[in-house]
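ESCALATION

Customer reports they have been waiting on this structure for their group meeting. Please prioritize. Original submission:
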Amino acid sequence: MAQLTETFRFGAKCSPSQHRRLVEVCGMCSELYNACLESWRGTYAWWREHHPDGAPLPRDRSQSHFDRLKMFTGVRRDCPEWSAVSVKVGRGVLRRFHRAERSLYKRCQTGKRPGYPRFKSRHRWRTIEIPDVSPSMLVPPGTRKNRSDRWWRLAVKGLPRLRFRDKGNRLATALGCGARVVDLRVVRTALRVEVHAVVKHSRADNPPAEEPVRPVGVDVGLRSRLALSDGTTVGARQPDRGTIKRRQRALSRAVKGSRGRAKKRSALAKAWRRETERARQADYRLVHHLISSYDGVAVEDLNVAGMLRAKMFSRQISDQRWAALTQILEHKAEKAGIPCVRVNPANTTTDCSHCGHRQPMPLGARVYACGDCGMVMCRDVNAARNICARAFPGSGGTLPDAMRTTNFRHKTHDTSREPWADGHRRTVSPEQTNVYSSI
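Update from on-call: job pushed to the front of the queue and completed.
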């Protein structure tokens, strides 16, 4: 049985008293996390002090995740604040610390920078995790405990009874199809309080998929965000950060420690949050267009993190959101049941998609002119065709016979007014409305 994990995000209704309670619980979670980190650090420092020869810390001296769970049971018995909150809230904090601990050891083993876990301020702790969710924690509308006809309710001991709407009946449909909620998160963002439901689907393994009939290769870039193997290009994202810059200047002029500075800092955080959500929604619309138009997708297996560390075009790469777009594309392709293949990006730009001739291509050359067969094409579209041919060699990844001309011109769309080109909705022409009506 294959497992598919999906996260649903809902904006919750939160009164001032409920918000104060969430802040209080977040402060308790940060204190528990810091106590685990202090105990972990203290044990290691004590061992190094008494064993300067560098002897490794024995296993019986270190605390495992289950040891912390046992100790937390005693904390709940002695602390009335934690005894009034569900035990799963504290277990979520311990699980988060365990993830940080394992990530540190993994980075040390692979030779990466360790990135030691840091202490968490109570004002910066914004997520309450609830693992191993019980069915009674989510109360659907129209039941005996919830007379409302549209509001879901979160019923967790010690947390405010938040309510949220399931627009589109996404959660109800998933639960009706046999899915189960494995994790819940209450997240305090700059704009709102959100409830995240992590749902896991159990489905039968799909049979080996046949070769796609209409595959597409996707090449990411900077001047054009995407170039597809059929010749379509998507214009580069141009995020509008005018509001962010204005609020940043207002914050820099405010007096430190004043009440006005706190308001301006909150306004800046809201502006950044709106820009992030706008970009994420644009990514989902673009991925929806790709998944609904093609039955196979091929992308380059790029080391985006390494490219960002190189600091060459790092700002432009971040603006185009290469890693986020690829992650969303893989998730949606898996959900739709179509293959999404990562290919080796080596020589996809320098090889001719028509004859296979390899020639150097400087970064400033935007047109690929093959010195062997004479084909002339946009370099990004040529790379997208090579990506498609490598991922799906038997599905027509190369140029069709009708397109094998000396001077082939790829088709382009005016993406400046398309709703999925960037995070801003604009007026769409009637022709484009017919094409993108399902987005």
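Sent to customer with the following note: Residues 397-439 have pLDDT under 50 and may be disordered.
Escalation resolved.
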